[in-house]
């Protein structure tokens, strides 16, 4: 077991040694503490107390270390925090978990002091496919989920008794933790349900295409189907696998992107109409109605309440899973998909 207390000036060194290389920003009076147990050569479990901070793994850092397969699974035990990776933004709520990887840039903001229980491991040790792992990054693993409760309880107990285990037992305990984590992550990756079959792969390609083309006002189900060489009927059938329709998924992703921009001080100079246009809403009144229905307030009201200077984005948004209730088919793209 290693125990280390450190200042803000030492945080980057500590992150590099016990987690992964990042760039940090802290208050001058920052103090942190980390206790680490090694579970073999490539797995550790640690408990940390963080001060207020902003932590970034930049695209340049990723490019310099393309073979870095380090991954972190953090259970948030207290305080407030946010993670942004894979174009997803997730709020760290009490006892929820979030996965981050070294292979792509990410950002973490902790506007308050916080505590975490972290499993650090090599990506190759996790018994999941590459697509499943990437899809699971920056998604909230709800504390109420039975699999998450099992994993959290196991990691908490493992942290408490790790010093009493033999070296072989620590290795076995680390692999058992990764097996439990794989069980948790399978529940958090709806876009790859159905295994490695062509249906799951095609759906994942369509979801990625939608997220990459939110600003296109002409994006419709017909265009999505044409680009992926399927019929409109089949496109609807594929989206039913994740309990939604193409139009509903596009609207939810556009609202998520708008909410993130409205929450980010870096975009405070933009008008609400500029943000609406940037995510594909070209009817401001329709955007206002859709946003108010989804989040309970107007876009302008959300900005006033959440967007402020400080340690970075004031409210990095968790990606909302598609609703699974029965719903009629909707339009895809344009004014209608933003307003209905």
Automatic annotation (TrEMBL):
It comes from the Bacteria. Residues 312-340 are annotated as: Disordered. It comes from Pseudonocardia yunnanensis. PANTHER family: ARAC SUBFAMILY, HTH-TYPE TRANSCRIPTIONAL ACTIVATOR RHAS-RELATED. Residues 204-305 form the HTH araC/xylS-type domain. Residues 331-340 have a biased composition (Gly residues). Gene3D superfamilies: Homeodomain-like. The keyword rRNA-binding does not apply. The keyword Glycoprotein does not apply. InterPro entries: AraC-bd_2 (IPR035418), AraC_XylS_family_regulators (IPR050204), Homeodomain-like_sf (IPR009057), HTH_AraC (IPR018060), HTH_AraC-typ_CS (IPR018062), Tscrpt_reg_AraC-type_HTH (IPR020449). Signal peptide: none annotated. This is Helix-turn-helix transcriptional regulator. Keywords: DNA-binding, Transcription, Transcription regulation.
């Amino acid at each position: 077991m290693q125990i280390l207390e450190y200042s803000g000036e030492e945080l980057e060194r500590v992150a590099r040694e016990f987690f992964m290389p990042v760039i940090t920003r802290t208050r001058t009076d920052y103090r942190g503490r980390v206790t680490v147990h090694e579970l073999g050569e490539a797995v550790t479990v640690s408990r940390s107390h963080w001060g207020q901070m902003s932590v970034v793994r930049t695209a340049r850092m990723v490019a310099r270390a393309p073979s870095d397969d380090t991954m972190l699974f953090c259970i948030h035990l207290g305080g407030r925090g946010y993670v942004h990776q894979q174009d997803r933004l997730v709020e760290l709520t009490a006892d929820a978990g979030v996965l981050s990887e070294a292979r792509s840039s990410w950002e973490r903001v902790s506007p308050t002091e916080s505590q975490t229980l972290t499993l650090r491991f090599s990506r190759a040790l996790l018994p999941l496919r590459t697509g499943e792992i990437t899809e699971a990054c920056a998604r909230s693993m709800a504390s109420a989920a039975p699999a998450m409760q099992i994993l959290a309880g196991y990691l908490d107990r493992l942290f408490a008794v790790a010093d009493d285990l033999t070296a072989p037992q620590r290795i076995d305990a680390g692999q058992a933790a990764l097996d439990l984590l794989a069980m948790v992550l399978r529940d958090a990756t709806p876009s790859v349900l159905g295994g490695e079959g062509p249906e799951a792969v095609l759906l994942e390609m369509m979801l990625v295409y939608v997220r990459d083309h939110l600003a296109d006002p002409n994006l419709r189900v017909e265009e999505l189907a044409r680009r992926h060489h399927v019929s409109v009927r089949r496109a609807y059938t594929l989206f039913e696998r994740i309990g939604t329709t193409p139009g509903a998924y596009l609207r939810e992703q556009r609202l998520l992107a708008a909410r993130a921009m409205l929450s980010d001080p870096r975009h405070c100079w933009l008008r609400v109409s500029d943000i609406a246009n940037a995510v594909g809403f070209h009817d401001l009144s329709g955007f206002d109605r859709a946003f108010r229905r989804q989040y309970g307030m107007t876009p302008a009201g959300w900005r006033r309440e959440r967007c402020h200077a400080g340690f970075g984005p004031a409210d990095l948004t968790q990606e909302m899973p598609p609703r699974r209730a029965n719903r009629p088919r909707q339009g895809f793209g344009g004014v209608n998909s933003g307003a209905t």
